[in-house]
């Protein structure tokens, strides 16, 4: 089993920045690709980024490419999502999730965190 815990969400003004963290524990967490997903109120959950186990491959959904950066520190078993230039439409619950294979936006992951709320508002 793999456990994932997100942190770092909060309220930020438009144009601001936040860094989310996803702490992984359990069976060989560094083996897994980790993705970030988000779900806005009344909308379906969507994948926004994915990073492979070694951290040398990443991909992004178009609406966040160039503003968000995914990274990982395997010594700390933690994956980060640096979010810059935040917009009101980025408001959502953000989840990290893991799977054994690196794919486009880490689709169909096997493990999920509990989520952290990000609100972008003035």
Structural description of this entry:
By secondary structure, this protein is mainly β. 0% of the residues lie in helices and 50% in strands. It has strands at 2-7, 10-12, 18-26, 33-39, 46-51, 58-60, 68-73, 78-83, 92-99, 111-112, 116-120. The strands form two sheets. Strands 2, 4, 5, 6, 9, 10 and 11 form a seven-stranded mixed β-sheet that branches. A hairpin with a 6-residue loop joins β4 (33-39) and β5 (46-51). It is globular and about 40 Å long.
Give the topology, please:
Blueprint lengths: L1 E6 L2 E3 L5 E9 L6 E7 L6 E6 L6 E3 L7 E6 L4 E6 L8 E8 L11 E2 L3 E5 L2
Parallel strand pairs: 2-11
Antiparallel strand pairs: 1-3, 3-8, 4-5, 4-9, 5-6, 7-8, 9-10, 9-11
Summarize the structure.
The protein is mainly beta.
Order of helices and strands: EEEEEEEEEEE
Structural class: mainly beta
| Contiguous runs where pLDDT drops below 50 for at least 5 residues | none
Terminal Cα span: 40 Å
* Rg from Cα: 13 Å
Range of strand content = over 45%
Largest sheet: 7 strands, mixed
Strand runs, count: 11
Given the structure, what is the number of helices? Answer: 0
Oligomer: single chain
| 3D shape | globular
Mean pLDDT figure: 96
Helical residues, percent: under 10%
Notable characteristics:
four-stranded antiparallel sheet, mainly beta, globular, 122 residues
């Amino acid at each position: 089993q793999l456990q994932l815990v997100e942190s770092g969400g909060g309220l930020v003004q438009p144009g601001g920045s936040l860094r989310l963290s996803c702490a992984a524990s359990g069976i060989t967490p560094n083996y897994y690709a980790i993705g970030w997903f988000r779900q806005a109120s009344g909308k379906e959950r969507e994948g926004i980024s994915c990073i492979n186990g070694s951290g040398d491959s990443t991909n992004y959904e178009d609406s966040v490419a160039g503003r968000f950066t995914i990274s990982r520190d395997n010594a700390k078993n933690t994956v980060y999502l640096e979010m810059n230039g935040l917009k009101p439409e980025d408001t959502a619950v953000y989840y990290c999730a893991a799977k054994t294979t690196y794919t486009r936006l880490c689709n169909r992951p096997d493990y999920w965190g509990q989520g952290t709320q990000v609100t972008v508002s003035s």
